[in-house]
Amino acid sequence: MRAERNEATGLLRKVVTGAAAVAMLASSLASAQAANFFEKNFWLSGPNYSGNVPACDLPAAISEIRGRFATTESRFWNSSLKIDSFDHVREIAFRPWGEEYMPRRYCSAEVVISGTEGPVPHAPAQYNGGKAAGSTVVHPARRTIYYSLIEDGGFQSFSWGVEWCVDGFDRSWTYAPNCRMAQP
Question: Key word Signal present in the record (predicted)?
Answer without folding.
Answer: yes
